[in-house]
Amino acid sequence: MSSRKNIAVAGLMSAAMMTMLAGCGLSATQAKSSPVPSISHQPKIQTVTVKKPPRHVPTYAMELVPSHLSASQVSDVNLKKDIYYTNRVVVISFHDMSLHLNSKFNMSPTVFAQDLQSLHQYHFNAITNQQFVGWMQHRNTIPANAVLLTFDDGYKSMYTHALPILLRNHMTGTFFIITHGQDAGPTGFMTWPEVQAMAKAGMAIESHTYNLHYLVDVHGHLTAAFNTAYYQGKWQTPTQYFERDYHDFLTARLQIEQHLGHPVNEIAWPYGYGNLVAYDAARAAGYSYFFTTASGYNTAKTSSWYIRRVDVGLYPNPQEVINKILTTAGSPAELVPQAPQKSNPVNVHST
């Protein structure tokens, strides 16, 4: 009895299925044999190709500023031959390149490398210390667009960062070092072996005093230590003051000569330049060339007592450095940014 009921239920379900298929417009035979219908027309897909405009990188070109051009400079400047000034030297200075020092006198090695690359790119000629001194002594000539690279203080970053970058760019520099820094041990200054390695690599090493690179408060006015007789809270006699400067300058010169084995006769004044007592003491200690922080260019007639320099390490990018050199040299040339080229329009393609 039970099996009969199952057969009857199965028959009813089969009949119901046939009725549903008939309602869908399919016969039972079609329902068994028809494949799954395929989609013959797929929707149109639109693809959009967007060409992003390239990130604008500023470009610069050397141009003449007519208002800066004097009659005497016409024969000295020829932009077609990349000549911006002749018969003068711009002495540029740098200080520190420590990676974690926050100071206006500190610059990153990356920026320093970019500065040197820009000097190459715009056809400046970095002359050696020997060329500079020989030119001031009227023994040799110098190329157009001449610059002399100088570095003050003798920090360790000069050895770790400045030296490799100079060598990669086939340039040399003049390093004025505070020799007390070498005697004091690991204080952030180069060691004597590092100074010797710098000299062996072709760098000039000169004096920045032994230990007079600091300021003294004289009645509320900060004065370079070598420019005042006020010492350790007391006033020295003129003789004591002269002797203090003399022994400091002499110690620095003799130390460099002892460690490097070559004569030293150049000094860079910290904080500007010396007074008459300091100059007399430095001359007596064996110095002949005095580098100041007074801005300006130098000619073969410039006094060796007053060599001008400009601190380009204070400028954040190579373009400002180049223009500072040009302005200092009195050149009518200027590095001018060029207008960016128009970017390509957005292209839309349908497939």
UniProtKB/TrEMBL annotation:
Signal sequence annotation: 1-22
Short name of any one Pfam family annotated for the protein: Polysacc_deac_1
Compartment annotation: Secreted
Primary location recorded for the protein, binned into one broad class: secreted
Alphabetically ordered keywords of this record: Signal
GO cellular component: extracellular region
Coiled coil: none
Annotated GO MF terms: hydrolase activity, acting on carbon-nitrogen (but not peptide) bonds
SUPFAM superfamilies, alphabetized: Glycoside hydrolase/deacetylase
BP terms from Gene Ontology: carbohydrate metabolic process
Residues in NodB homology domain copies: 145-351
Record protein name field: NodB homology domain-containing protein
